[in-house]
Amino acid sequence: MIRDFGIVWSERSLLLSGLANTTILSVLSAAAALVLGMALTPALMARNRAVVFAARGFVDGMRCVPFLLFAYIVYYGLPSLGLRFDNWTSGLVALIVYNTAYMAEILRGAWQAQPREPIEAGVAFGFSELRLFRRIILPPLLLMAGPVIGNQVIQIIKDSAFLTIIALPELTHAASSIQSRRYVPFAAFITAVALYWGLCLIVEAGVSSIGRLAEARR
Amino acid sequence: MSGADIVAILQGAVVTVTLSLVGILIGLPLGLGLALVRWADTPVFARVVALYVSILRATPLVTLLLLLFFALPNIGVPIGPISAAVLALVMNTSAFNCEVWRAALNAFPKDQYEAAQAVGMRAGQRFRRIVLPQIARASLPGLVNEMSLLIKVTPVLAVVGVVDITRAAVRIGAETYEPLPPFLVAVALYMPIVFALVSLQRWIERRQAAAEAAA
Question: Whole-model pTM?
Fold first, then answer.
């Protein structure tokens, strides 16, 4: 058993590059999905029926499709419509588009739970729509939604593992490749599990520090 | 894509639904058991369960599945794709269910429990008659939410060779060189299943909110 972990250690550069790819994918797609989600949230709360209908359809549709199937469609399905991406772009696009729906829904829930008064005060103070959103609505929204967004980031990290099926060299793909070449399945995958666990613990620590910040601001 | 292909995807749907149901049926009580171990603060076991839940919640199902499928035979436990799939689903969902049950247990009013003790109910009776009905109601939306998440991760099972909706669709796409139609059929199968569960969860939440408002 110790010998097996020694073999995994000798392949550490492969595992570390997998870990780096998983981290880059997760950070990029979490940030992009959060920003796009922010842009989509007002559409979910709009007065115009058609806008709400379209936004709701996208969000609910995404929430009913398994991510892995969605990734397959982006990578294998879209080329028949003339849209061809490499596996990196496909994986990243799939993660971003899919999670934008979840982020928008999270922010909408937090928005509806916000008190009306600061927003009305902002309107009375003459803030333009964009500045009102940026300076009055968004900051408490992000602090309140922090823990749920953190959970979604953990979900993104785990979803990124699915991208091993389109041969994206992330952490699970690296562990698979070590196990198939050196035949040390237990050591290779347990190491990957430990690394995923570490990533999620870091996210959880980040979330609890946001929680403390929100508490201090109240 | 021919009619036979659609039948093949439908057969995959039977596999997807069956495996999900088995995962749910084992994962629900197992999650409750784990939550009870933590709730009762059993010396060493509570710590072990906390660690199990923390690790399992952070582990992608693909990684867990590959670990079970390749590592168990390596240490002398023969395991097929279906058993590995069920085991991975159960391990994954029980960790999430444990957290849902535990939240309900932690919110359970202590005075009721003490009242049950005062009227002389035994531990088993207290749990069955007083605690379980109430925590089951409180946990229901969370548990249904977890069921919809479980269905959404089942396509991963195709990785070790389980012929579910996704694997059937991939195979047909590879044979016909037209992957889009079978994928869309697959989406059309997953969507109503997940949507039904999401609607069920919203309906339960609304009904409970209405019952609370009436009370």
Answer: 0.88
